[in-house]
Each structure stands twice: as structure tokens, then as C-alpha cells.
Amino acid sequence: MFLCLNKVGGVGRNNTSTENDDKCWQRPEDMRYTRPVSSCDETASDLAGEIIAALSAASLVFKDDEKYSTNLTKAAMELFDIVTKDDPGFVQGMYTTKDECGGQAREFYNSTGYKDELVWGGTWLFFATGNTSYLRYTTENLVLAEEDEELSVDKGIFYWNNKFTANTVCIRVNLVTTEKTIGISAQNLLTKLATEVLLH
Where would I find the beta strands (DSSP E) of the chain? Predict the structure, then answer.
């Protein structure tokens, strides 16, 4: 299955005399300049993880509009299934490694990993749905995200390229109400990770 992730807008070319997304921080409907569209496939795992998290969080914000909230959650779940599939030959990756997807962003917002973003998406899907399979995915893959974090110069910093610390804190806080659903080993792991992150 092919998934087209369209990213509208782009990264400015560090040219302050031209209107671009770096210079213009306003609503898209008020922008009067050309905004390129980038097309990404399902191997843009980091971008997909961010979209999953955003859709899931938005479903919580709009929970009073049940139909809209359900549609947001459904889209997040479908995208999660696509980008976390365990099919032979399926390759996960970063959107900035492909020119047609994230080539413009590479200079300013180069992505260095995708595991933390997929865990981030799983974390927010759990918050949105209460489905413990997403919490299980998150806890099982948090160690892999930590391994990527160990290589990072930005260890312990929460920002566009690093969701590890935020994942750890969100999951640890949530364990207070869900510790029966994930088992003691995951709880011990997350307590250890949260302690390490908060002490660094």
C-alpha cells in the first residue's frame, strides 16, 4: 500500500527578502506566497509519527465533537498501522533523507532518527484511545529510541528532533493510572528511564 503524506509549505532558503514559512508566522489562509507541496511515502517514519501524535492530540481537544474526534483518531490509527507494519522489505526512515520529501528541510531541520517519533505517535494514540496495544508498542520500542538518543548531542532536550524525554515523562506520569495493564517489567523500565532522563 502506498501512502502519500503531503507536507504543505517548506523551509525558507534563509533569504529574508522573500516571503517563506520561516519569515511568515501566521495562519495559512492569510499567506499570500507560493507554498510548495512535498510528497512522502510510508518510509517517512519520523514525519508519520509526528502526524499520528498531532491527530491523536487533536482528537482529545475536539472530543466534544464526537464525529470529528473519531475521524481524527481513525486516521491516526490507520497511519500508525501503515508505518509500523512488520512486512519483509518494508523500510522505515527519516523524511529528510529523500529529496522529494524533505530535501528543503534538510539544511535547517535535518531529522536524525525516527524511533522516538513513532513512540511519540504510539504514546498519543494510547492517550486518545485507551487501547493498551499502543502503550505496549511504546514500552517495547522505548529502549530502541533510547539507543538512538545515546548517540545524540541533544540528549535530554525536547524539541522537533527529539521526543525521547517527553515520551519518558508522559508515559511515567500515565503509569500511575495504568500500571496494571502493562506489567511490572515495563513499569520498572520506565521508572529507570524517567529517573535517568530527569537526573541528566
Answer: 5-8, 37-40
